[in-house]
Amino acid sequence: MPKLPSYRVRESARARRVVLRASLDDGILVVVPRGFDTHHLPSLLASHREWMEAARERLASQLRSTTPADRLPEAIHFRALAQTWTVSPVPTAARTVRARERPERRLEMSGCCDHVPSWQAALRRYVLRKGREHLRPWIAEIAAEEDLHIETLSVRCQRTRWGSCSSRGAISLNAGLLFLPPALVDYVMVHELCHTVFPNHSPAFWRLVRRVRPRALERRQELRDARALVPRWLTAASASPPSRCPEQRDAADDTGRSTTLTPRPGIRVRQLR
Residue 28: which H helix or E strand, with range? Predict the structure, then answer.
């Protein structure tokens, strides 16, 4: 039997079945339920060999075209807002790194800019502020236009989901949406808003999505490759421990958050993230 592409295994208490996923941060990742006998994985994954090989090649291509997560970017491109901000590092003796918008779309990064976790956390805080500023009124406008109700709304940096909606109508949006084209952001928002009516992916749910946005299925396909548009430092920051300059241990913490995929019984193959 031909050898499978290399992969990592992660055990999850929430998992109910094996989930196969690929991302720039994790490579090819297999999430298994707690206590799962990993000796069964090779036979389970054998039927997904072609998907894994294609995922490996796609990730390699994306890695060649993206800036490494530990390199301070020269510019930040918010496609959703049609804005590009030039990053201007200003090294100082400050305990942390701060990101401030300056005239002419210049983003000033002041502080210990040579400490990777510190500037990653600063950029993450900046993207979160930007997301809350722009994504909240954006989805509120769509909800008003389509007569859909939002119970509560939050914006976070998430690694695996563009958005989510609880059974109580609480919507969460990924701040990384700012890096996507407006049409894809619109689709994600409509998708989550429709979950306030149908908290599932039933045929009735998809009929509502297509009624609100007739090109929804096309956007859904486009969204599968959109993760590559999100800078790697954003998800690296969300997965990092609280950041601080190495020589200043009393610096303020910025705890990141990440989410896990909703597991179900069986085996599932995830699209590239």
Answer: strand 27-33
Instruction: Find which of 37-46, 88-97, 174-183, 236-245 is predicted with most confidence, using mean pLDDT.
Output: 174-183
Q: Which residue has the higher pLDDT, 78 or 226?
A: 78
pLDDT of residue 59: 78
Max CA separation in the chain (angstroms): 60
- Counting every residue, how long is the chain? 273
Residue 250: partners with Cβ closer than 8 Å, 6 or more residues away: 95, 244
Give the helix/strand (H/E) hosting 153: strand 152-156
Which residues 6+ apart lie within 8 Å of 141 measured at CB? none
**Residue 234: which region, alpha, beta or left (left: phi > 0; alpha: psi -120 to 50)?**
alpha
- What pLDDT score was predicted for residue 187? 97
Give the side-chain half-sphere CA count within 13 A for 149.
6
What Å distances lie between residue 260 and 12, 117, 208, CA to CA? 9, 22, 27
242: helix, coil or strand? coil
Residue type, 111: G
How would you classify the pairing of strands 83-91 and 106-111? Answer: parallel
Buried b (16+ CB within 10 A) or exposed e, 24-51: bbbbbbbbbbeebeeeebeeebeebeeb
- What radius of gyration do the chain's Cα atoms show? 20
